[in-house]
Amino acid sequence: MELSLLVIFWYGILHAFGPDHLTAIADFSIGKEKKKTLMITFLFAIGHGLSLFVFAKILESIEISEEILSYGDIISATVIIAMGVYLLFMVATNRVHLSKHSHKNGEHLHIWFGNAHSHNSIDKSSSFTMGLLMGIGGVRGMLITLGAVQGGAVDFSMVGAFTLGVILIFVSFGLLILYINQNFLGNITNVRRTFAIAGIISLIVGMNILST
């Protein structure tokens, strides 16, 4: 792998450690089963990389002021805050539920929001959309890195290297969330407490982004 791609890969790793990214992944992954947790983190990373690629290509040919680019951070912060408010509302109104059942010689936990238990793909599509939206906030940093290694030129291989770095951290963090899901969410009290903590952290992270 060329040195420039290694730099971009490393930047993807560092970028993924942003508290807004990890908070978003936690909000979507808490209480999910193994396959769904890993799929959510993977789709978030793919959406994030795709968004950065698209906006970086746009900014190659269109000069946009720093002030306008800063709106990307505002979008990311607003999404994180909205997620925090949503989680806290679900907890406060007792709309977080837990059920247990045996399946294939093992006990399975199902956690859901609202009044009815349903199986759908909304978490997966939402995590991909979240990755797209939050990618807007990372465009400035990525362009600075690209400018340092290849004159600001953006190609798919560079975005691919960045996305691989992001995926490495996101999936690792997803495994940590999975461990929490499997070992600490055995009763509804812990489930609601965990979602309340996630909601509060989301508010703190989002407001911190807006204040900087």
The main β sheet shows up as: 2 strands, antiparallel
Topology as a string of helices (H) and strands (E): HHHHHEEHHHH
* Radius of gyration from the alpha-carbon trace, in angstroms: 18 Å
Structural domain tally: 1
Distance between the termini: 36 Å
Helix fraction?
over 70%
Which band does the percent of strand residues land in?
Answer: 5-15%
Strand order of the largest sheet: 1-2
- Mean pLDDT metric: 77
How does the overall form come out from the CA principal axes?
Answer: globular
Low-confidence stretches: none
Number of helices: 9
Q: How many individual β-strands?
A: 2
- Class by SSE composition: mainly alpha
Summarize the structure.
With 212 residues, the chain is mainly α. The protein has helices at residues 3-16, 19-29, 34-61, 66-69, 71-92, 122-135, 139-150, 156-184, 188-211, and strands at residues 96-102, 107-113. It contains nine helices and two strands.
3D architecture notes:
The protein has 212 residues and is mainly alpha-helical. It has one domain (3-114, 121-211). The protein is 75% helix and 7% strand. It has nine helices and two strands; from the N terminus they run H-H-H-H-H-E-E-H-H-H-H. The chain has helices at residues 3-16, 19-29, 34-61, 66-69, 71-92, 122-135, 139-150, 156-184, 188-211; strands at 96-102, 107-113. The protein has a two-stranded antiparallel sheet with strand order 1-2. The two termini are 36 Å apart. The mean pLDDT is 77.
